Amino acid sequence: MAPVCNADCSRGDLRELGLLEPEITVGEVKAALASVDRRICINGKQVANFGDNVKLASLDLGLAATWTEVLVCPNNSEEPCCPEAVLQRKPFKLGLGAKYLTLWIVLAAGAGVLLGYYTELDAGIASLKAGHTNILSAIAMIVMLLPPFAAVKYNELASAVSKIPKRVAILSLIMNWIVGPFLTLGLGMATLHDKPDLLQGVIFIGAARCIAMVMVWTALAEGDGFLCVSLVLLNSLVTVVAYAPMVSGLAAIAQAAGIEMRGDVGVSTVFIDVATYLGIPFALGVIMWCIGHRWESYWSKFLPRFSPVGLIALLLTIFIMFCEQAKPLLSGQVGIGDVFFAIIPLLLYFAIMFAMSWISARLLGLPFASTVTLAFTGASNNFELALASSTAIFGTSSNQAVATVLGPLIEIPVMLLMVYISGFLKYGDAVDEDNTTDSTANR
Question: What angle do CA 426, 443, 351 make, to 5 degrees?
Fold first, then answer.
C-alpha cells in the first residue's frame, strides 16, 4: 500500500487485498494489515475499536462500493485517520439549516420584500453598490462558499480523482457538462422563450455543476461517499475552466434561435466573476485547510460549527436581493408570476436529470451505491456559483439574479424527495459483482 498521510500511514483497497469475504472479521483484517496497535479506517469509518470477532459484513461500511478503501494510521499520528467519518457519519442527519433551507429562503425573501417596500432600507443597500455589484452581497457570496472549500482534503485531491473508475468518470462528465446544460437550455427555451432575462438566469443555474450539498443527499440515500467526494472534486476542477465558455455558449445558442439575450455576457466577463467568486473562497479555503487539517478538532469541531456561516451568508444575499426588488415587485414593474414561471423548467430539469443518470448507471451495471451517487451528482447544481455570477453581471435587483434564487428553493425539497425515491428503488449488488470488479480494474 502506498503512503498517504506520512511515512507511517498507508492506504489500500480491501477487495484487492482479498479481505472482502463474508466471514472476514475485524481481527483478521488487523492481522492481515499488521496493525494490531494502529487505527484502521474503512470507507471513512474507524473500526479499530470494534471487537476482533465482529464480522465486517455486520458493520455499515459500504462494502459494495467500487472502491473499498482501507486506511491504516499509527495511534500517535497527528493526521486524522478518518476525517470523512466526522463529515459523513451515518445515519446522516440534516441540521435545521439544511433540512428547512427552502423555508429559510422563503422567509429571507419575504423579509427582504417587506422591509424593502415599507422602509427606506432598499435605498441604504443601493448606496453600497459599485457598478452592478452590491459590496455587502459580494462579501456574503464569497463567504457562503468558504465552508465547502475549507472541508476539501487537498492533499488527497489528485489521488481521489484518479481512483474514479474510468467509465464512471466519463458518464459523470457527459451528464454534467453535455446533457445537463443543454437540457436546461432546451427546457428553458421551450417555456421562457418570451422571458429572456429569466431564461438567462436559468442558463446560469444549468451550467453550474454539483458541489457541497450533493454530499448530503448522497449520504442520506446510502450512496458511495468516497465516489461522491471524488466526482465533486472532478467536476469542480472542470468548472474552473468550463463554466464561463458554457454560459456564454448557451446564451449564444439562444440568441441564434431568436431570443434576445443580454449581449454583454462574454466569456471574459463570466470568467472574471468565476475567478472572483470561486477563486477567492477557494484560496481562503486552502489557507484554512493548511492551518487546521492536521488537527482532529478541525474536522470534528471547527468545520461543523463553521458550516452554518455559509447558510447565513446565502440568506443574507437573498435578503439583499429581494429588498432591492421589493418596490418593483409590489408596484407591478416586475411580474411576480413571471418570475415564478421559471420554476417549470427547473422542476423538469431536476426530475429528468435524476432519471437519466439513474438509468445510465443501471445500464452500466453499477452497484446501488454508485448509481445513487451518479444520480445525485448529475441532478445537483452549484447554485451558489450561479447566484454569485448572475448577480455580479446583472445586479442584485435583476430578474436574472432572482431566477437563480429559485435554484435552491426548488432543489432542496426535490432532492429530499429523490432520497425517498432512491430507497424505494434500492436493489441488491450481488449480480453486479463482476462489473464492480471490472470497474475497479479499469481505474
Answer: 35
In whole angstroms, give the CA distance from residue 45 to residue 89: 8
| CA nearest neighbour of 106 among 308, 319, 334, 313 | 319
Is pLDDT above 60 for 442? no
Q: Dihedral angle at the C-alpha atoms of 209, 213, 214, 220, nearest 10 degrees?
A: -170
Query: Mind listing the pLDDT tens digit for each residue in 394-406?
Result: 876 677 877 887 7
For the chain, how are helix, strand and coil distributed in percent, rounded to 5? 65, 5, 30
Contact 417, 438 (CB under 8 A): no
Domains of the chain plus CATH, in order, are: 2-81 (no CATH), 96-441 (1.20.1530.20)
* 3-state SS, residue 96: helix
Q: What is the pLDDT of residue 375?
A: 93
Give the span between the Cα atoms of 309 and 18, in whole angstroms: 44
Name 5's Cβ contacts closer than 8 Å, sequence gap at least 6: 73, 77, 79, 81, 155
Cell of 7: 511515512
Instruction: Count, in order, helices (H) and strands (E) of the chain.
Output: 24, 7
Strand order across the 38-42 sheet? 2-3, 10-13, 69-74, 38-42, 45-46
